Amino acid sequence: MSQFSNEWSISESVYHPANERTGGTLFCIGNGLMGLRGSYEELGTKEVQGLFAAGVYRKSIEQQFCIADTFCRKKYIFDEELMPTPEEMYLIQNLPDPLYCKIWLNGEPFRMWDGNLLEYNRTLDLKTGVLHRTVRWDDGKGNITSLKFRRFCSMDERHLIAQEISITPENWSGEVKIESGIDASLNNEYAESVVAETPAGLTLKSEVQGGAVAFQCLETRLHRGASIPLEWDSEIKLRRYKKIATVRAEQGKTLMLEKFSTLYSTQDETPQEAAEMLVKKAAAEGFSQCLEESSRVWKELWEQADIRIEGDSESQRKIRYALFHLIIASPQTDSRVSIGAKALSGQGYSGHVFWDTDINLAPFYQWVFPEWGGAHVRYRHRNLADARAYAASEGRSGARYPWQTSIGGFEHAPVAITCSRTQIHVTADIAYCALRYADISGDFEWLETDGAEMIRECARYMVERVEYNEEKDRFEIHGVGGPDEYHPLTDNNAYTNWLTAYVLRRAAALSDDADERFQWMDIAEKMVCPVDEKTGLIPQCDGFFDLKDSWEITGSDWGGPGAEYHECKGLKQPDVVLLTVLLPQLFKEKYLRANWDYYERFILHGSSLSPSIHALVAARIGLMDKAMDYFNLSADFDTLDVNKDTWAGIHIGNFGGLWQALAYGFAGLQVRDGQLCTDPHLPEQWKSLSFNVWYQGTQHRIEVCNRPEAEPVLA
Ligand code: BGC
């Protein structure tokens, strides 16, 4: 289990093979263009190792999984008529592992699980994105060696990975054999071949199913103090492409190895040449120089992204870990791709992009790195044609955005899963996200062109889903689910209805067509958006208050015969509570409080997206103990492996929510009448909370303090 060790790092000091999968995620590094899991150089497995490039997906016809194996699933989740259906989709591709490096010390293979591991430490330096491992190892025959490993994905040259390995025999002299290479043995979804070779390097070309081609170029340098020329042998064995050298090591003297690998794909221009050029440049500069350049960029990123929590170094460490992942998740200004539910840290959710990106993640980028925030809405706009086709396939006009997607904008979710088809709020979420991007960034040029086109198309689709109830002279939406997946098929889900009404109003202001404007405003006015004005309470959907208040859990959330959440009030994740966060101009404290009080007792946090939103609301209404409990649950979600699935990748949407909890919740950041303002609620131990945001082209430093006499500062 990893632990935070100081304000700028996480580390672990116990090695156990059983932790390798989770460690692969927790110690993942990257730069938004690629993600590299925290595997060990000497040997990994398919679930530990991982190199992912943004946009490199394989195309596949999948026989969709058929897991309607429980009462609940059969009754509520799957439509067995539609199952099993082979469907075309893209899945993020795990590429050949460039970290591969095996070492023999005096004839014995270095393996932490053999011999005696005298010391072990693995530390991820959040400031520079460097992963360190230090080991003292006894081969079981009394030969002790100290080994140090460092690696980073450059933030400066974002196609570059650099590794450094130092080997110091403590009490022996003898031979060290090194095998440095690329391991392509763990996946079958690509066909690889060596397309160029130099004595210490090679270029591997991997043709991924469905069209993508990745080029990885490798160069290994050995130094013994000063650089020495070496003879390398080549070997290809079991799809491991290796360069092999044997050298003599002297007791107490350090042998240094530097390894550079580059990754380009057919998304890039002249990828093979680019990969070869960059690797040569990096090898000529050396590890330290490359690190310096990467660290310089990291410094600039941290200057913008860091959140300072004075008085609580544990919370400080936690938020930095979250920010680190938010930074390495972003494709930055590249709008051809966006951030999947696990970013580039694992294969969970196949690298697919969900509504999480628009609702949970986007605020961080929109406020902190507006250009990166802009890239995401542009990505959504790029996929407008597919969204139109989705709506058309239902015989509807406008654009329907899919539940999960990738580089292709079509629906990747198994058609038989009810909630993927009923969560039409995704379309409203995407329009909402585009509007918020424009509001925060001030990029009205985009809003009035591509943004307007996309928002209007979303509005047209939502209008198609609205039904007029003549008797009551109101508009309703039937057969949908909100974010809470435990109630996937309901009428008048409050989240969907309110958000649709909001989007229609704003879309009307972007339309030149008077009839359309009138229709959208009329629907927005008469949409069923029930709220008890006296108490502020909002029903999640029709009939929600009549569901059972308690339930017996006899199995897993979806599974056990007693876990019939659909017939009771158990919630997977916030629905109404999230709604109150999204529309702060409508929902003031009374509504936040009423709905928090009512719904919090039913929340099961079956989704990682849940705790941060609870932290946000608890802080806003001044429930500071609760706010801190939820802050910690969210911040520790992966480090404590709360849902037992961290091995499949980081829960990046959770970290986006955590940023919102701090900004909107603890600092109470809001825009009122075009002005930024704060309404801080800080836990007692926090002296101050400060961070940077951009608002309509101007940078602001937000600083809120916990001293009663201190006024919030907005610079
Ligand atoms: C959540 C969804 C989310 C998905 C991907 C599910 O468990 O319920 O709301 O979009 O995970 O993160």
Structural summary, described in words:
The chain is α+β, with helices and mostly antiparallel strands and 715 residues long. The chain folds into two domains: 3-56 and 93-297, Distorted Sandwich (Beta-galactosidase, Chain A, domain 5), CATH 2.70.98; 306-714, Glycosyltransferase (Alpha/alpha barrel). The chain is 32% helix and 25% strand. It contains 18 helices and 29 strands. The strands form seven sheets. Strands 1, 2, 10, 11, 12, 13, 15, 16, 17, 18 and 21 form an eleven-stranded antiparallel beta sheet that branches. Helix 11 packs across helix 12 (494-508), helix 15 (589-599) packs across helix 16 and helix 17 (624-635) runs antiparallel to helix 18 (652-666). It is globular and about 90 Å long. The model has no long low-confidence stretch (mean pLDDT 93). Beta-D-glucopyranose is lined by residues 341, 349, 354-356, 483, 485, 572-573, 607, 609, 653.
